[in-house]
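Encode chain A's predicted structure.
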Amino acid sequence: MSLLHGLYAITPNGLQGQALLDRVQAILRGGCRILQYRDKSTDQDRRLRETRALRQLCERHDAMLIINDDPELCRASGAHGVHLGENDATLEEARLQLGANAIIGISCYDDLGRARQAVDKGADYVAFGAIFPSSTKPGARQAGLELLRQARGELALPLVAIGGITPENALSVIETGVDMLAMIQGLFAQPNPEQSARRIDETFKAFRGNP
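Encoded structure for chain A:
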C-alpha cells in the first residue's frame, strides 16, 4: 500500500459537525493523507452524515478515510477501510464484509506477536503505541521507540506509531523507520492545525529526502 505513509490524523472525542469538518479540512490542507474517523457514540445518523462529508473532503485532497471499529459504517459511507482494536470485529469478519480492496489496519499496542498474526491474516498495516504518554489514553500500554525499530526490522508492511506524538518529538519516531505517525491532540488541539500538519509533513519529506 504505497499510499500508506505520512501523517495519519485521528478525530478526537466530542468534535462534531461543521467544527469537525473545518478542522479536518485544515489538517488535510497541511498535508495529511490518512484520516481516521473515531466516534464511539450511538448517534448512527450523525455518524453516517459526518463520514460521508469527510469522505468527500478526503477525496478532494487525495486522502484516505479510515473508520474506527465499524465495518458497517465503512461500507455505508464509502470509506476506504477500517481500523480494528483487540475488542473490535476480527480482521476476517471485516474482510468478508468489506472485500479484498478495503484497507484494514490493526492495533497491536506493545505486542509484536499480535502484529505477526495480523500480517499472517492479511492486514494492510499495523499500529503500535503508546509511544509516549498520552492525554487521550493516559492508561495506555507503552510501546516505545525500540519496539518500533524491532518491528521495522522484521515486518515488511506499513507501520503506524501512535500515542503522545507531537511536532516536537515527531522526528525521533520517524527515525525508527515507521511509515505513518498517528496524531490526535498534536493536531486537533493546536491553535493552527494546518500549520501543525504541515510541520509533520515537511519533517517526513525532509527525512526521506523528498522535495
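The chain has a mean pLDDT of 94.
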